[in-house]
Every structure is written in structure tokens, then in C-alpha cells.
Write a structure and sequence with these properties.
alpha/beta; Beta-Lactamase; Alpha-Beta Plaits; TIM Barrel; 5-stranded antiparallel sheet; 17 strands; about 45% helix
Length: about 575
């Protein structure tokens, strides 16, 4: 026996010893995918005893639907060590293809040999319950958790110069899903999740950030081009037409010279959320990759400026009235931000969007709530206001704790404050969000769900979240007035809400015809420029009386409760 053979046998024996307590079946293959060693109850899982398995190739005992995955996985250890926590199916056993947990390992300088361990487990091949921070279809981290993990790991030095963040996009993924049956969809997403985790730093720095969009932190030795090709192969294999989808990526350096870890973390978080929220075709990944260094610097400056702005409460509050559709009674005012740095009349939308994408919106939401409560405390009791809460903030522990402390110091606020949840699509965990909402309602605060009807998920939100009011998105109101079936559609929505005991607000009502339309459709409250533009001087709305008389036939009265 030569030295190389002795070393091979020694390393194999070491692998067997380490894997024995975990695995049921152990297999060693050479570089040509032929089995050279096998041990364990192979007959039960492959239909061959250990001796008969020697010389077999992967396709002889691995289910054909898993061959592409396992080959992709086995290519990874050559650069990054081991793979684990994957599920593959072995064929030939008496019970047919059996899903087993799979782990693999490749030792250096052993002629391309690699080792595979298979374990029978109740969790293999089944839908394992994922925690709230994970995408249920892939098992990857969700975008919020991933952004936080990424920023924390960079700040703590856990990932740095040798690591890269790759943003991976699959244009046309929605079309691919339409061509797949439910089983094929589940298999493809499970495969993508397994493969990306196996390529990631530490085995878990990967996330699904949208349909066909993923984030992956990996060491610099990983060939992203090969990752793209492998994902394309997975999609072709799943696609009944064999077409699949092309894959695009941008790789961003996590470690940069002369740039602080905090600035890199901010730049990465902002870029990730920008990638997540962009519509298909809005981001050129090639340009993003080349301009990332500049983006990091610009983002860091904007983050510092925004934090100073929030810390100094350097913004104003503008109020916009919401009235009873039938009587014109002033129900409450929505509190809206106006940034002093912006020219008069400028929409704060861009700044708020940046705060959301940079992960700063929760800090702003708390500062806004503090300011509105302070202003209400100095106004007559007849003034009531809705304070906006971004869907991002609902799950933010620091925000929730700060809001509870603010409300505990101002118990009177439950009689004059309600909360309006905006960007509800950003709520990663609806059940947890509902717990937060019910705590507010238990303390006497009414809760409104904004942007209702603008997306297919609106009904899921209403089914899961117990709220007092929904606000129909302005686009829903406008579109309903344009099409023949719009009136019937909006009437059906209001009737649905009424049966659930939920009141309705229509926004963007800017004309008498619009008011008449929502009134006839059964919408109970209304908001729009027809009743005045947002104004920092809440007292100015007393000037609405004459206009209100023309629209409603009598003067506006004070606030009354929903219902």
C-alpha cells in the first residue's frame, strides 16, 4: 500500500468514525462519481448491499430529481468544506424513493474523492416548521432578519474582507411558477434554499428577499458564475418546457479599505432593501456592482444626516382631516410628516422610503409618535389624530418598547389617538403583528390598516389582523371610478368590511363627484384635497365650514367614535 492509499484509508476511517453517530449510510465516491466504499443498511435504502453498491454511480441510487442538486452540492466542498442539512432521495429500496438527510465532506488532496452520509429522520422530506424569521418555502432567512444579521456580522467583524454579498435575481420567475404544479414549485424552492445555504458563509447567511430574488454572503473563493449556472439548471429541470429562467447577480465587497464597518453595514442594508423593493427591471445589477463603493459612501452620509434629523426632531407635523362621508362630521386628522430640509410643498415620500430601505424607519416612527402626542397635549380635546406606524416598525422590538413607554406616560392619549399601519406588506409575521395590534386595542387605541385593496394580500391581512378600520388605497378609489364594474367592486368591499365589523375610509377624494361616488358605495369616512390640504396649523381647518356646508348641507361637527 503506497503512502497516498494509506492516507486515503486513514482519512476515510476518520470520516466514518466522525459520521457513525449521525448517519445510517456512509458512502465514498471517486472523482468519476463511482462508489468505492459503502457501509450501513444500504440494502433497505438502495436495494443493494454494501458490496454490490461498490462500483455503482450516483444515478444508480440517487433519485433523478435530486441528481442536479447533489452534484451542485458536491461541487461546493472542494472550496468551502462541508455541506449539511440537505434532503435527497435514494432509490431502489423496498419502500421506493426515500428522503434522507444528507451531509457531505471533501478532504483536500485525495484525488477528488468525497464522502456522503445519509440519515433517516422524521423531518427529512417533510415541511419542517420554520420560525418567524425564515421564509417558509425555502427555509432561508427572510429579508428583515437577513439585513439585521448582515449589518450585525459586519459591525462585529464576523464577516469582512474575505466575504462578498451577492444579490441574485431570476427575471421571469413569476412566469416559471405559473408553469409549475404545486409539488414542482415546492421542490424547486427547497432545492434553491438548500443550495444557497450550502454556498453561504457559516451555512446560513442566505436569504430569500422576494420572488426570484436572493441574498447570499459567501467567501471570495465561491464562483458566482457557477452559482448562476447551477440555479439556471435547477430552473430548467423543474420547468416542464425545459426553458427555465436566466439568472443575474451582482457581487458587493463586504470589506473595503478606508471605510468603517458601520458605513459598510449601512450601505449593505440600504442596497439590500433597495434590491428587494425594486420592481423587475428597475435595477441594473451590473451598474449596482460597479457603483457600490460610491453608494456606500453616499448612504453613510444620508444615514448620519437622517439620524441627526430624528434625534433633534427636526421635522414638522401636518394634519389632514378625515370626515364622515354622509354628515361631514370631522372624525380625526391624519398626522403627516413635513421635513424642514425639503422645499415647501415637497413630498416627504423619498426621505421616508430611504428610511425604510436603510432600516431607520422605526426610529423615525417613534420620534413622530412622540411629537404628535406632545402637540395633542396642548390642543383642545376635540382634536384627535392618527399616528402612522410602518409595517417595518410593527416587528421592531426597540420601537414597540419605546411606544409602550410613551403611551404609559400619556394615558389620556387612548381617548384621542388612533394608529394607522402603513406599508402593511412589510410585516414579516402577521401573527406577531396581530399580537401587537391587540395590545394597542386592549389599551383603548383604535387601529386602522392602510393601503387596503391595493394588493392581493389585503384579504389575508384582514383575515389575520383584527382591526377597527381599513383605509382604501387612493388607487382603488380612482380605479373604481374609471371602470364599469368599479362601483360594484367597491360596494362589495365595503359590504365585506361591514360584515366583519370594520369601518372604512376612502382616501384621495378630490372632487364632489368623488365624494358622491364613495358615498353611494357605502364608504363611511373620507379623506382628500377636496376638504383641504395638509396643514401644520390644525386650527386652520375651521375655514372649511362654508365648503363643508355646500358638500354636506350642514356644518362639520366634532369627532365621534368609529362604528
Amino acid at each position: 500500500m503506497n503512502d497516498q492509499s494509506a492516507k486515503l484509508r486513514s482519512d476515510r476511517d476518520r470520516f466514518v468514525a466522525m459520521a457513525f453517530c449521525w448517519a445510517d449510510v456512509l458512502v465514498e465516491c471517486d472523482a468519476d462519481e463511482k462508489v468505492v466504499f459503502a457501509v450501513g443498511p444500504t440494502q433497505a435504502y438502495t436495494g443493494r448491499n454494501s458490496d454490490k453498491l461498490i462500483g455503482a454511480k450516483l444515478e444508480d441510487f440517487i433519485d433523478k430529481t435530486d441528481l442536479t442538486l447533489i452534484r451542485g452540492l458536491l461541487a461546493i466542498p472542494r472550496k468551502s468544506g462541508r455541506i449539511e442539512d440537505a434532503t435527497v432521495r435514494l432509490t431502489g429500496g423496498a419502500k421506493g424513493p426515500q428522503p434522507l438527510l444528507f451531509a457531505g465532506y471533501k478532504l483536500e488532496d485525495l484525488d477528488g474523492h468525497y464522502f456522503m452520509a445519509f440519515r433517516n429522520s422524521p423531518s427529512a422530506g417533510k415541511d419542517r416548521k420554520k420560525d418567524a424569521s425564515r421564509d417558509s418555502e425555502t427555509g432561508l432567512q427572510d429579508v428583515g432578519t437577513f439585513a439585521d444579521s448582515l449589518k450585525e456580522a459586519v459591525a462585529n467583524g464576523e464577516i469582512g474582507e474575505d466575504n462578498v454579498l451577492s444579490l441574485i435575481s431570476m427575471p421571469g420567475f413569476d412566469g416559471l411558477r405559473e408553469r409549475l404544479d404545486e409539488e414542482s414549485q415546492e421542490k424547486l424552492l427547497e432545492t434553491l434554499g438548500t443550495y444557497l445555504k450550502a454556498n453561504s458563509t457559516g451555512g446560513d447567511m442566505a436569504a430569500r428577499v422576494g420572488d426570484g430574488r436572493f441574498g447570499l454572503v459567501h467567501d471570495a473563493s465561491v464562483d458566482v458564475g457557477e452559482v448562476e449556472k447551477q440555479i439556471t439548471e435547477f430552473s430548467k429541470e423543474a420547468d416542464p418546457t425545459g426553458k427555465g429562467v436566466e439568472v443575474q447577480s451582482a457581487s458587493l465587497d463586504v470589506g473595503q479599505e478606508d471605510v468603517s464597518k458601520e458605513d459598510i453595514a449601512s450601505g449593505l442594508g440600504y442596497t439590500l432593501r433597495m434590491f428587494t423593493n425594486a420592481k423587475e427591471g428597475e435595477i441594473d445589477l451590473t451598474k449596482l456592482e460597479s457603483s457600490f463603493s460610491t453608494l456606500v459612501s453616499e448612504t453613510a452620509d444620508r444615514v448620519r444626516d437622517f439620524k441627526r434629523l430624528v434625534g433633534a426632531a427636526d421635522f414638522d407635523v401636518a394634519f389632514h382631516p378625515i370626515l364622515n362621508t354622509l354628515t361631514g362630521e370631522n372624525h380625526h386628522y391624519e398626522a403627516l410628516v413635513r421635513f424642514k430640509k425639503d422645499p415647501s410643498g415637497t413630498s416627504p415620500y423619498e426621505t421616508i422610503t430611504f428610511a425604510e430601505e436603510a432600516g431607520l424607519i422605526s426610529e423615525f416612527d417613534l420620534a413622530m409618535a412622540t411629537k404628535v402626542v406632545a402637540q395633542l397635549a396642548n390642543l383642545p380635546d376635540r382634536f384627535h389624530a392618527a399616528i402612522n406606524i410602518s409595517g417595518f416598525s410593527v416587528g421592531n422590538e426597540k420601537y414597540v418598547k419605546g411606544l409602550k413607554a410613551l403611551l404609559a406616560e400619556n394615558l389620556w392619549a387612548s381617548e384621542r389617538v388612533l394608529f394607522e399601519i402603513t406599508e402593511s406588506s412589510r410585516m414579516a409575521d402577521l401573527d406577531a403583528a396581530n399580537v401587537f395590534i391587540q395590545e394597542l386595542r386592549k389599551d383603548g387605541y383604535e387601529v386602522c390598516l392602510d393601503d387596503f385593496g391595493a394588493g392581493a394580500a389585503s384579504f389575508q391581512y384582514l383575515a389575520t389582523l383584527d382591526v377597527d378600520v381599513v383605509k382604501f388605497d387612493g388607487s382603488v378609489i380612482k380605479d373604481a371610478q374609471k371602470v364599469a364594474k368599479g362601483r360594484a367592486f367597491l360596494k362589495a368591499l365595503t359590504r365585506f368590511c361591514r360584515e366583519l365589523g370594520v369601518d372604512t375610509i376612502g382616501e384621495m377624494v378630490d372632487s364632489p363627484d368623488g365624494l358622491l361616488f364613495v358615498r353611494e358605495c357605502g364608504v363611511q369616512y373620507v379623506q382628500g384635497f377636496l376638504f383641504g390640504e395638509p396643514n401644520a396649523n390644525i386650527m386652520s381647518f375651521s375655514k372649511m365650514d362654508k365648503n363643508t356646508e355646500k358638500l354636506f348641507g350642514k356644518k362639520s361637527a366634532g369627532k365621534r367614535a368609529f362604528g
